[in-house]
Amino acid sequence: MKQPLESGYPSRAMGKGCAFGTFGELMQGMEASGRNFLVTFPIDRFAHATFCSDPDATGVDVFPPHKKKARQLAANLLAHWQLPGGGRLELVSELPVGKGLASSSADLVATARALADCFGLALSNEVLQAFIREIEPTDGVMYDGIVSFYHREVELREELGTLPPLTVVALDEGGEVDTVEFNKLPKPFTDEERSEYADLLDRLSAAVRDRDISTIGDIATRSAVLNQKLRPKRTLDEMIALAEEIGALGVIVAHSGTTLGVLLSPEDCGYEQQVVKAQERLLTLGGDVSLYHGWQPEPQNDRSTVTTMR
Question: Which of 135, 134, 120 is nearest to 83 (CA)?
Answer without folding.
Answer: 120
